[in-house]
Amino acid sequence: MLQRIKRIDGSIVLILLLLMGISIFSIYSVTHGRDRLDGMHINMLQYYVMGFIAFAMLTLFDYRLLVRYGLYIYVLGIGILLLVSFFGKVKNGAQGWIGIGDLSIQPAELFKLILILFLTTVLVRKNRNPLRFWRDVVPLSLIAFVPFAMVILQNDLGNALSYIVILLGILWIGNLKFSHALIGMIIAGGMILGFILSYINYHEQMVNFIEKGLGKDHFVSRFDPWLVPELASSTASYQTKNAKTAIASGGLSGEGYLQGGSVQGNRVPYLYSESIFVQIGEEFGFLGTAVLLMLFFILIHRLILIALECRDRGGPFLIVGIVAMLLYQILENIGAMIGLMPLTGITLPFISYGGTSLLINMACMGIAMSVRLYGQDVEDDLPQPLPLKS
């Protein structure tokens, strides 16, 4: 065990500590002196303590056992999502929370990790054989589509889209045929482009369809500021418009910690959660955001190195799924704040306030570190996943 512990990647631990510091100071900046929010930075510190405990436990736990029982974990996760669909609490327009005492847990966040595990379980059984479209790609897509549809019905677009990104990332390294990948990208690109053009050119008809046909008024307030800002209501465009103004005012080096005009004036909603990047952009400027992005880049680089060094078939699938999840969250969150992506409520990993999101991200880091510790074993000696019924 001591030899395994020596394999722990100190760079990842250091980056997590630095991200913790950035998170706590940023949350303090946007919550201090505000009655309902004051003290959130202390809560976040407590979440980080729990997160590092989860990180340590999963680091020392053999990740191959999780892959072995991936099917059962997936079924349990679907059951929890069903429970949320009927008894979940509504927050910010999304019915995606379960209340346990004073705590609120968001199962859609947890399911990201569950989906990564189960997709890995299925792909490990393929034994590096090329994926066939009907027998492999379609069933794998259905595995992701079931929770996607359930979470969409809960009005949680951000987390639902993350399932698709995770699926695409894992399929990409799952020995998918190039022709299938190319056709898939053309179809997906065409559908996205078609939706964007239709929304812009046939705005009224699309809005009527989304609001009356699908019953998703919440989505219109997300798409309008992104695609047709000139037609968006002042309420719908308030967050994006003020976020862009605040980030632009930060300039090169920012207005100074606790000195941001928009941040301290509370002109941007949800500064402690999905809009936390605005605080960094306004108070620390381009240089501050560049440092944050560099930390994310180094973290993802170290994760990819773990995947490349792994001798087990399942380890790289897990790592790529985690990397795809993190990249999506980072790009979507920052992109939404500067108007390049729609607002979906996705938080900035390791920085935004939120216990469920942080614990899942720290658990993912623990599993990634477990891959580094246990993925170097000779593959013939690795425990195989439980067989899945055909």
From TrEMBL:
Which PROSITE patterns does the record match to this protein? FTSW_RODA_SPOVE (PS00428)
Annotated keywords: Cell shape, Membrane, Transmembrane, Transmembrane helix
Keyword Endoplasmic reticulum (UniProt): no
Instruction: Look up and give the membrane topology term.
Output: Multi-pass membrane protein
| Record's subcellular location | Membrane
- The UniProt transmembrane annotation reads 12-30, 45-63, 70-88, 108-125, 137-154, 160-176, 183-202, 284-305, 317-338, 350-374
Keyword Amino-acid biosynthesis: yes or no? Answer: no
* Pfam short name (any one): FTSW_RODA_SPOVE
Its primary localisation, in coarse terms, equals membrane
Q: Which residues form a coiled coil?
A: none
Q: Which PANTHER family match?
A: CELL CYCLE PROTEIN (PTHR30474), PEPTIDOGLYCAN GLYCOSYLTRANSFERASE MRDB (PTHR30474:SF1)
This chain's protein is named: FtsW/RodA/SpoVE family cell cycle protein
What organism does the UniProt record list as the source?
Paenibacillus tritici
